[in-house]
Amino acid sequence: MSVIDAWVAPAAKQKLVRKQIDLGPLGPEEVEVQVEHCGLCHSDLSVLNDEWAMSQYPAVLGHEVIGRVVEVGSAAKGLKVGQYVGIGWNSGSCMHCRPCKSGDHHLCSQAQPTIVGHRGGFAQRVRSHWAWTIPLPEKLNTAEAGPLLCGGITVFNPLAMYAKPTSRVGIVGIGGLGHMGVKFAAAYGCEVTAFTSSENKFEEARGFGAHRVVSSRNSAAIKMLAGSLDLLIITANVPLDWEVLMATLGPNGRMHVVGAVLQPIPISAIAMIFGQKSVSGSPTGSPVAMETMLEFAARHNVTPQTEHYPMSQINEAFERLEAGKARYRIVLDADF
Q1: Of the candidates 181, 141, 190, which has an alpha carbon nearest to the alpha carbon of residue 294?
Q2: Cβ distance 237 to 215 under 8 Å?
Q3: Based on the domain organization, do 143 and 196 belong to the same domain?
Q4: Containing domain of residue 135, as a range?
Q5: Shared domain check, 317 and 183
Q6: What contacts 213, CB < 8 A, 6 or more positions away?
Q7: What is the domain count for the chain?
Q8: Which of 135, 178, 203, 259 has the greatest number of C-beta atoms within 10 Å?
């Protein structure tokens, strides 16, 4: 069906309102999904508030979608009606550029964000290109899986690219991204150091699998870790003591940024040259990387820690997220 109910942001920083929208005809390579659950990600808040100067209104947000396929376009491949699937940050890409043909679809310059210029998952139904509609493993808990489609792949991708089970991994920021980073790194077999500015999260971080926990505000304590890490994943989006964090890396160590820090990150050339260290970053991940992540999560029972709201309480959920009170991801359950 083309006319559906959705929660719509009419303009920047405005409360969402429930209204009917027309999705139009289903494209030949599109898949339509009946939404059952949709995670509420900080990126939804950033787009709602136009923090990245890329938002388009009216907007239907929501990009951590879990649901069942209800219609398949005439040229869509590999999916069938009734199948459980997920849709993340991207809902399409050009499929013919070098990154797409190389398997790096998420690096496509024409990748289609699910919530910018496209109607997202805070709705009865959502559409996506078949390649970006990710089948869910049978053993995955579908009610809890939504945040894996964005936050999960964002922290899993650098681990898959740069870590080994013997790696010493630091996760900076134990929030919506970081707590999943700790869980994935621990399940992978890494020695995990968690950095958090909140001392009340120390025991929780250990429960997620961290072998040690350090205050990210205590530069003296961080200095004691000099040369002890192979990979440092930055999930926080606030200014940090970059020099002392860089010093925690051993030879050939890498600082990898996935938190959308809006200020420049000052790293001296000397800090990289001596020790042959690197600084890098990444967005989410390709469809194949997402499938791999979901299979790993199902195999090792890696699930985000969530709070659930009915989707009809979406504005209250946004307020809780903006106040920094979510522990650690919010999932909205469809109640249309």
Answers
A1: 141
A2: no
A3: no
A4: 3-150+285-333
A5: no
A6: 193, 194, 195, 196, 201, 202, 205, 206
A7: 2
A8: 178
